[in-house]
Amino acid sequence: MRALIDRYIDAYNRMDVDAMMATMHREVIFENYAAGTLSVRTLGIEELRHLAESSRHLFAARRQTITGYSEAGDTAHVQVLFEGTFAIDLPNGVRAGQRIAMNGRSAFRKRDGLLIHVADHSD
Question: Is the entire prediction scored with pTM above 0.90?
Fold first, then answer.
């Protein structure tokens, strides 16, 4: 599963939505949790594609770096360092050019050789 996750993260870092989607099962569920609260959930590859396309303009550059990896049963757990530079001003006061760095974690499951579930967590 590590090679599949590496392909996904590489595509994410390059902002290559087509390559990201090539790692996803058509029935993929994506969830994003911020401070333990579900903030975004997509069902199916088309909803995830829409999210990925609509959000990539937020960053001029972004990078996830794997800092830890383990597998338990059918789930891979990944510790990541996220670094990004915002491309636009946001309503919450974040300004274009501002940098962010934060630690997070993700859980991945696969089906038929593709990612079927991705859950990102940040604090």
Answer: yes
Q: Which CATH number fits domain 2-122: 3.10.450.50, 2.170.120.30, 3.20.20.60, 3.10.20.30?
A: 3.10.450.50
Spell out the residues 6+ positions from residue 18 whose beta carbon is closer than 8 angstroms to its own: none
Cα gap 38→35, rounded to integer Å: 9
CA separation for the pair 38, 97 (Å, rounded): 27
d(CA 50, CA 88): 19
- pLDDT grade for 123, boundaries at 50, 70 and 90: confident
Domain locations along the chain: 2-122
